[in-house]
User: Fold these one by one.
Assistant:
Number 1:
Amino acid sequence: DQQVKQNSPSLSVQEGRISILNCDYTNSMFDYFLWYKKYPAEGPTFLISISSIKDKNEDGRFTVFLNKSAKHLSLHIVPSQPGDSAVYFCAARVASGGSYIPTFGRGTSLIVHP
Amino acid sequence: DGGITQSPKYLFRKEGQNVTLSCEQNLNHDAMYWYRQDPGQGLRLIYYSQIVNDFQKGDIAEGYSVSREKKESFPLTVTSAQKNPTAFYLCASSVTGGSYEQYFGPGTRLTVT
């Protein structure tokens, strides 16, 4: 049973426009959420995170929004650039016995067209 | 430079052979992890370790084994008992507790024929 769901396997966006990647979760105990970016044949790199006590976190072109009542978070990229083309993973964490082990979604492949 | 190294980048083995994947970090992180990535499956946790000489099974530990004899090193052995070993394997490390992110290595592509 997937606790973190990224229901869109892929997203195609024009350069300069906004990219919105979505993530839903089922475990209300999750207290920290992270987004990672991954290029083919490379390891993921951390992009941005948000604590459950906040509803928005912004870092340059990247903004993450958290809607706890809907158990939904989204990553906005504005403006989108061709170099943003990658797979984006949403991850959520719950402090379970102090392990802080994150659960990952299956990823969304973003393609930004020039 | 600080980071995580995985070697080799590509690894080929015959079915029935055990193979060990290397993971080394110089970030002074206590926690280390092994993930497996298959197409459309995201990242699935194999094993993790929060401290030297201790490790825990993840979601898909069957057919794998690990050791954590040194803080910097967390090798993963893919045994012949693993039914579908061909995959992309990722090692990661992090600080423990609090708000943190994981740092990932470049990955090892294992192909078993």
Number 2:
Amino acid sequence: AQSVTQLGSHVSVSEGALVLLRCNYSSSVPPYLFWYVQYPNQGLQLLLKYTSAATLVKGINGFEAEFKKSETSFHLTKPSAHMSDAAEYFCAVSGGARQLTFGSGTQLTVLP
Amino acid sequence: SAVISQKPSRDICQRGTSLTIQCQVDSQVTMMFWYRQQPGQSLTLIATANQGSEATYESGFVIDKFPISRPNLTFSTLTVSNMSPEDSSIYLCSVEERGSTDTQYFGPGTRLTVL
């Protein structure tokens, strides 16, 4: 069984500031981990994924995430927030059963 | 990645009626999935649809309420039957990437409002 916890349902940052969205997972097998972004009135877009290669994963739009097995974490970061980053972000885990379990989501607001 | 389209993009329906949502992919895929996203909530998997076999439903979802068809490797439909206001949600289909690491790509979603 697997689960995902996203800490902070709402995160606000100023434009140009660091973005940090937290994700902790639980999995009985080595996991695959994903971050998706959902812009208003749209579907989910894959930002990045960890599939047991490099622990630091780079994604689209300047985002990256680091897999830390000891902390069971997969936090999403971006050095400098842009107004266009305002969206909902979902962390998801797969235990190899070809199904994704999603976290509850984090709404990111970027302040001018 | 696959390009996925859904029809309709949104609809407003009366309670007691049914709506069929279509999902079309621009390439052949083995696994397709249907999710529900209730207002302000995360995604919940409804069922997994493989071509040529019956869909596999998750706990809390039944075939009579959410019948699914998967006639070929590029198309699937989800029907929401006998709708009530509680069925108001975004319904999303997704497909699994080839050679997979369980990566899924999502369609734009169908926003359903039931009055």
